[in-house]
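Summary for the lay section of the report: proteins are chains of building blocks that fold into shapes. Here we show the chain for 2-dehydro-3-deoxyphosphooctonate aldolase and then a coded description of the shape we predicted for it.
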Amino acid sequence: MRKIILLLMGSVCLFFSNCKKEKTVDDLASIKVDIGENEFGYTSTNPILIGGAKDSIGPESERIYLKELVDLDGNPIVYNRVGSCCPFATENGRYGRGLLDVYKVYVEGKKDTIELYMNMYERDTIMAPKGFKFKYEMDF
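The coded shape description reads as follows.
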């Protein structure tokens, strides 16, 4: 299990350092680097679909994603998991159910704090939410 997590972390780090803007790669989920123009993640009805729960790496996948986010000026974010909410049906969860994880996110020195909703049970193209981008430009 530890080897799988380390391999996953290494793969995601490699992709984040070797891809280019607007390109998509397949890994844990598709990772699309996009400067945050997307409204997803800000509400429980449109969460960031990070995936990983089916492979027992859901929480780690969320943390890897969050560690790669910066604001549009390139300032790193600070995040804290608030808890879980919003039960929903999913074939990837225990007993056919899942919960969203909620994170408080802010940039040090700035007043605004936002909540991001993440779904570790479903996967989709991964993009930065509005107001954020990924640390590294991705270049194939």
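Put simply, here is one thing we learned. The CA atoms of residues 32 and 105 lie 20 Å apart.
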